[in-house]
Amino acid sequence: MKKLISMMALVAFLFAGTVNAQQKPEAKKDAVKTEKKEAKTEKKEAKKEMKAEKKEAKKEVKK
Description:
The structure is a single chain. By secondary structure, this protein is an all-alpha fold. The protein contains two helices and no strands. The chain has helices at 2-21, 26-62. The N and C termini lie far apart (97 Å).
């Protein structure tokens, strides 16, 4: 009886290990990628705004 219980516990342990190994860590990677893309687009937009402000300032100085 003890052997049967130990064998079942061992099988359950090995099965749980293989199930955990099959989980995809890509979900975290996708979240990080989207955050990086958003940060890049925000930086680009900020640069465009700064350029537009500089152009406006130059136009005002010329007037």
